[in-house]
Amino acid sequence: MIAAAALLVQSCAERAPAPPSARMFSADMAGGAKSCTVPTVKPEPGQSAEVPMKVGNDGGWCAVTVNNRGKPFDAGLLAAPAGHGKVLIHTVGNDTRIDYTPAARFTGADAFSVRLLPGDATVRVAVSVTPP
């Protein structure tokens, strides 16, 4: 019995602690557009990633979600602003999220680009905004 208890304690002691998991709250998802289509993006250092985005203009945002090997980027710089909407770059859990919200009643094509640091990757987003 003592040997079994010692074996159990030893096996617990040898396990590495679990890494902290990302915490995401329902507030992180509030306000999203009902119609939002964006492919998965994995930006590479020094490279440019072309991202097509399709969003219905119901007043909500549509997001490109990226990360730097499992953690958020240190910074996202708006290299070229959207002509017909707003862009918000922020951290959500272990990701950097790039939210685009089209201007009220706008439909048509829009575009913007974001430079991510470190690594100097660029995400170029071509947006197609449709009626709600």
What are the main properties of this structure?
single chain; 132 residues; mainly beta; Immunoglobulin-like; five-stranded mixed beta sheet; three-stranded antiparallel beta sheet; 10% helix; globular
Question: How would you describe this protein?
Answer:
- It contains 1 helix and 8 strands.
- By secondary structure, it is mostly beta strands.
- The chain has one domain (32-130): Immunoglobulin-like (Sandwich), CATH 2.60.40.
- The strands form 2 sheets. Strands 1-2-8-7-4 form a 5-stranded mixed beta sheet, with no helix packed on it. Strands 3-6-5 form a 3-stranded antiparallel beta sheet, with no helix packed on it.
- It has one helix spanning 2-14, and strands spanning 36-37, 48-56, 62-66, 75-80, 85-92, 95-102, 108-117, 121-130.
- Helices cover 10% and strands 44% of the residues.
- Mean pLDDT is 86; it is low at 4-9 and 11-19.
- The radius of gyration is 20 Å and the shape is globular.
- Strand 5 (85-92) and strand 6 (95-102) form a beta hairpin.
